[in-house]
Amino acid sequence: MSASSIEAAAASGVRIPPQSGTSFVLHRGDVLRIVDPCGEQVADLYAFALEDHACALSSGRSLDYAGKLFLSVGDRLYANDSSVLFTIVADTVGRHDFTLTPCSQEMFERLYGVTEHHPSCFENLVTALRGHGVRPEQIGTTFNVFMHVAFDESGRIDVRCPLSRAGDSVELRAERDLLCGLTACSAENSNNGTLKPIDFEILRAG
Ligand SMILES: [Zn+2]
Fold this sequence. Notes:
The protein has helices at residues 59-66, 105-112, 121-130; strands at 6-7, 14-16, 21-26, 31-36, 43-49, 52-56, 76-78, 84-91, 143-145, 148-151, 157-160, 168-174, 178-183, 198-205. It is mainly β. The strands form 3 sheets. Strands 1, 2, 4, 7, 8, 12 and 14 form a 7-stranded antiparallel beta sheet that branches. Strands 3, 5, 6, 9 and 13 form a 5-stranded antiparallel beta sheet that branches. The protein has a two-stranded antiparallel ribbon with strand order 10-11. A hairpin with a 2-residue loop joins strand 5 (43-49) and strand 6. Bound molecules: zinc ion.
């Protein structure tokens, strides 16, 4: 399908408020455009085959088949059954993470000593996907759009400030019908200390 056959129809974009999430359906050929409207803000994406939630996004498959840690234009995001869920078709940043799970209450408690409730991508994905019959334990490692994670030679993980600037975007083409969850990340440390919205739009296939 050529870019010109994609109808930029559906959308006026949608804004995901800070520390929240949403869900939506993509059909094969649709392009999901995720925009960082303010800069330095992460968005966590997870997806299932629309008609079979046992088929879910797999970080391990995707990194293994790509042979690298950092995915960008031309790379594919695979499911646990090795089918292709997405192809990255545009990317103005070129640095995203696909190694860490969505931030969660447990993560805030373990890493940052939080004792009160803290909004999290995991909780927001659970809430957004519950109505589609998705159980919490079915949500795995998210594709962490704009998240800047670095690894030193000893293997130590360092979460850094995102490289995205206001207006930067990533576009992913759905390679089959998908149920998606998408968040504006709630982790202060992943977003240079301030929690901002994420915008997205769906460019429907012809
Ligand atoms: Zn998060």
